[in-house]
Amino acid sequence: MSQPRLIEVRKNILRQNDVVARELREQFRGTGVFVVSLVSSPGSGKTAFLEKILTLLAPEFRVAALVGDLATENDAQRLARSGAPVKQITTGTLCHLEAAMVRDALLSWSLADLDFLFIENVGNLVCPSSYDLGENLRLVLTSVTEGEDKPLKYPTIFNSADVAVITKIDLAAAVEFDENAACASIAAVRPGMRIFQVSSKSGAGVGAFLDFLRAERTRSRATAVAEP
Ligand SMILES: Nc1nc2c(ncn2[C@@H]2O[C@H](COP(=O)(O)OP(=O)(O)O)[C@@H](O)[C@H]2O)c(=O)[nH]1
Ligand SMILES: [Mg+2]
Fold this sequence. Notes:
Layout: H1 2-31, E1 34-39, H2 46-57, E2 63-69, H3 74-80, E3 86-90, H4 99-105, E4 116-120, E5 137-143, H5 150-153, H6 155-159, E6 163-167, H7 179-189, E7 194-197, H8 206-226
Parallel strand pairs: 1-4, 1-5, 2-3, 2-4, 5-6, 6-7
The structure holds guanosine-5'-diphosphate and magnesium ion.
The site of guanosine-5'-diphosphate has 16 residues, from helix 2.
């Protein structure tokens, strides 16, 4: 008897999240900020990649970031080295960010003063996939050190994302990373999914990714103007 009730409670939480996520999406659209979230397992390189992105975009755009972890302000401190405004969200025991946490963290910021907002989710390949944060673009990161078959084992997180980013490619040879097998795993789950390969250490592939981000922001703004 307890199983259906648990499922019902979970559905209600998800429904509430979707309502707040919809409000956030409207707010993002109205203020013109382009919002990008990052999901992956812990240690895939989200913070390293985000620090690189913030540092490279900051001279050109108004950028800011929210970062979620169960505990510590460590990642916010790392990201703040870019000079961008950064806020840490600590979730306690929760393995994902929820839209209400994002809404509350943004209360003291003026979104109209931002071009890009980045949201680093809690490191987890399962929970974040169910929670819409109202973002324009969701990146799923997977590092060369995690093996090639993570997309096959955790298809839901790849299905909930828009773009895949293979990280730490500077380590590819050392771990005998099979690029073709990794791309085939992603394609098996999400045929046609856009894939970038980057190294936050060497900077390889980061320029191409930033060109893509700029183009996505421009495209999103053109759509918002065409459909007020
Ligand atoms: N060699 C190499 N190490 C990386 C790269 N990106 C991240 N790392 C390392 O991987 C570890 C986890 O990175 P972090 O950004 O904290 O991952 P997160 O948990 O997904 O935010 C750290 O020791 C980083 O220095 C990369 O591109 N190349
Ligand atoms: Mg991190």
